[in-house]
Amino acid sequence: MSFKSKKIPGFEFRAHFSLEPTSNENDLSDECCGENMVYSVTLNDSRIIRGKKFKCSNKWLLERYKLSDKYALNKTITVKSPGDPKFVFLTAVDDKFYPSFRMLIANIKEKFGCKQHIIAYDRGTVTKNKEWMNEINSICNLEWRIFDFTQMVEGRVRDLESRAWKIFVIAHVFAEFDTFVWLDNSIFFESSNLSKLLAPIQSQKIGDVQLPSFSGHGMNRATHPEMYDFLPMYTNYGANQTFDLTGNNDPPQFESDFVIVHKSEESRQLLKWALLCAAESDCIVPIGQTRACIYTTKAPKLICHRVDASLFGILRYNMEYRREIEDGVVNANDVTNGFENRKGIRQTWMNDSVPGEVIRFLIADAGKGEAIDVQQKLEEEQAKHGDLVFLHGFVDIYAHIHLILILVYGGFKWQQSFCANAEWVLKVDDDALVHLRRLAHWTGKKFRPIVVQNPLVYFGYIYHQSIPVRDPKSKWYAPKEMYPNDVYPDFMSGTVYLTNPATINAILLHTRQIDGFYLEDVFYTGILAKLANACDTHSDPCALTRAYQGWSEPTSEF
């Protein structure tokens, strides 16, 4: 199945929008009885991308759930934690998923205790089953609610597969609680410590609606273009080597099975538009959409519609972008060091490259308060050197190490798309030094024969039987809920490692199997490498090999 893109001259939006100056933003045609019903995004040059108008007949829902603009929240509310009366876990269940729901509830009570409030919405006839109720009602502080399908007027919206009901449930609870976590029945807690997820919201480092689990693909690959008709998504337009995962600038999509919501004006606005979309079939479930994603080992490609994940993804991405434009100052040393480090590399070891080598720097979007100035400098740098790869949509909104994980993913996808015939791929931190001619010598003398026997391989420094760091103050902190095992699989030092396109293709096929892990070297060269092993024996040609090779070893040939 394929989707057609609709274009505006000079802009490459995936769906049709109107582009209007700021002075027209108060157009009364956007309103229904004084309520704005047109979603829009203001770019950093003051242009506005406007979506289609939502139906006036759904305005009553905004009143029902107090999401109308007249209920704007002007005060700051402290983020609540599990155990607080204003914090709740939220889920829903129907008859089919009762067994997994029962496991979820038991898990929450085990980790967070009897006092923790849980709200469960019945989407089917669970509460009418006496046997189930006798079993589940013995769990303390579990509140049952019956989902009201009559509020969902349009037929396609009522379909459980539309996931529209989830937005209605979240909107309902938003009016009652300060902080809550939506949980699909598949979620399992390894730890009761949620501070790592809640603290950045309290400190306002990230937005008040968060989806922590990266899906392993971009949003455009799994979003029907007609959703963008209603909810346009901010898109950057970079230099010649602007890259994303589908040929259009493609931010990463995050899973909607675990959603954190904290009450604020920011989250009220996000849920307002989410609810209007969920109430309108053409937005939440466009005609022709399919949830069955096409994903093949030869040419990984997703063409599907992830409904609620797509909806939250668009709104959350735009929310974070707006924070980047409007919020305060970030430490500029990180960006400055990037410029200086690249300059140093070009003046030193990059000058020693041999014919056929391609060296590229992966560049994320500029951070808070610096987008215009930094982007201009980057484009000047690109015009001069032509060696930058812009991965638009990846902004440093989480800890820096999260950004590195996604940047490396984008870099690998860039290689698979634009340098697919490369023999070798070397990942290097920008504060490392590489002797390129010696590397070329060793790839020919030692590494190539190994690849003949083991097509899937990493070369670098191996960490063997490494133990996860459990100290929250550490840069390499790995809480139990992120990685429950006591020992990591063997992995390579992330400073520099060498591999080949076949290995990259093999590990990328498994990125969606791992949620919430953010240590780049362990993730790509350890966990995914282990998943990519097709055979058990180290000597078998289809097994992925991690080989320590001393490419800094002196040799008489130099």
From TrEMBL:
Q: Which UniProt keywords are listed?
A: Glycosyltransferase, Golgi apparatus, Membrane, Signal-anchor, Transferase, Transmembrane, Transmembrane helix
Question: What InterPro entries does UniProt report for this protein, alphabetically?
Answer: DUF1647, Glyco_trans_31
Molecular function per GO: hexosyltransferase activity
Q: How does it sit in the membrane?
A: Single-pass type II membrane protein
GO annotations of cellular component type: Golgi membrane
Predominant localisation class: Golgi
Provide the protein's localization. Golgi apparatus membrane
Write down the superkingdom of origin.
Answer: Eukaryota
Q: What's one Pfam family here? A: DUF1647
Signal peptide per UniProt: none
Query: In which family does this protein belong, per the annotation?
Result: Belongs to the glycosyltransferase 31 family.
Q: Which PANTHER family does the record cross-reference, listed alphabetically?
A: LD39211P (PTHR31389)
Q: What is this protein called?
A: Hexosyltransferase
What species does this protein belong to? Globodera pallida (Potato cyst nematode worm)
